[in-house]
Structures are given as C-alpha cells and as structure tokens.
Amino acid sequence: MISRTDINGTIRFAFDKAREKAPGSGFSAARKVERRFAQQLRKIARHIADLVETFGAEQTDALTYALDRYGEIIEPWARAVSGRMIAQVSEHDERAWMKLARQMGMSLKSEIERAPVGIRMQQLLEEQVGLIKSLPIEAAERVHKITTEGITKGLRASEVAAEIMKTGHVTKSRANLIARTEVGRTSTTLSQARAESVGSRGYIWRTAGDTDVRESHRKMEGRFVAWNDPPTLDGLTGHAGALPNCRCYPEPVIDDAEA
Ligand SMILES: [Zn+2]
How far is the CA of 20 from the centre of ligand 1 (A)? Predict the structure, then answer.
C-alpha cells in the first residue's frame, strides 16, 4: 500500500513526505557536523582517562596538576576545533536559507550574506573554548573533591580509587552533551541572526519527531514562537535547539508583508 487515509481524509504518507521536504526542514542542526565535533571532544575524555590511569588514586596531586595543565594547553586546539564546527554549521544554515528563498520565490541572498553573524560566531567560539577547557579542569576538581571527601567521610581507599577511576567516563558523557548542545545552539543562534536580518519575527518549533523527544518539547511541535520571547521548558528558557541536549530546531517564519 502506498498511502493510507485517516478519518479526516488526510493522506498520511503524503503528509509525512511533505514534512520531510518542507521548506524549513533544512534548518535542523547538521548531524554530521555534530558527530565529528563529538568525536573530537571525546579525544579529550580519552586523554583524561589515560592521565587518570597513569597517576591512579595514589598520586592525586600529580594527577590534578596534570589535568589543570592539560586544560591550559588545549586552548589553541579548542579554538581550531570549535571554529571549524561553527563555520560548518554556518554553511549548513546558509544553504537552508537559500533553499527556503528559492521555494518561496524570494531573493534573500544579499540580505542573508549581509546578516550580522560575525559577532555571534565570535561569542559562540569564546563560550565553546571555555566549555572545552572546562573538561580537564572539572575532571581535576572531581578528583580533588573525591579525595577530600574520602578523608572527611573516612571512606576506604579502594572506594575512593574506584570513584576516581570513573573520571574518564564522566568526562566522556559531558563531552557528548557539550557537542550536542553546542551544535544545536550554534545552529539556532545563526538561524535567528539571519532570520531577524530579513525581518522575521518568529519561527515554528520543530522537533526531531522521534520517540526520544521529551514531553515538554513534543508539546511545542508546530507552535509559533517569537524570537524575542523564548519559552521556558522544564525550568530552562531558550529557543528550539538552544536548550541542553535539544535536537529541536526553529523553522523561520518570514512575513510576506515585509518581504
Ligand atoms: Zn528539543
């Protein structure tokens, strides 16, 4: 069977297809870029796991020193890796805009090219460099905290050691979370900057459309959101794609009257 008709007479398959090819679907974050960025950040987690294994629970002073030093020396690397990710997300977003303009029969090329994204990209870069450097620094803090608590709570050395050895794993989870959150946030930030430069006042909230979408975000699917009024979901305020671990994305709405 090629298509199925529901009680309202809507052909579902046709609708799903239309959704896939909807003008705004290109605004979803670039998953390939996210995978690559996550791979890069996990390299840091692996190196941290190596340092933890090398020094072990017996040499925590040397370990925290090495982790802090590592946080310092990765800055140029973090800058390069983040810079590349932002450039790739920006290209992806620009392509989505060109596709949308073509489908709407509008010429937005010059407006999109003139959109003030440079300053946003610079801010994103600085924030991401800070987050990447925080991976080893937080690992060092974790080791320090566990060691201190081990003494004050009178824990067995083996318990303390086991907890310290988990540091690489904890860092890996944080690396994955940072990668997903930052690629989405970069994508949404650049889409917003470009949307506002063409007079857009808001967007339609789109979810990834699968079973992993959390309930509070699922309820937002298809809703109009003004750029100047991000919703608060689960206690966090932000736009589609710009919340922690969020795979949603904004589908910009362009006012015909202003076009
Ligand atoms: Zn979401």
Answer: 18
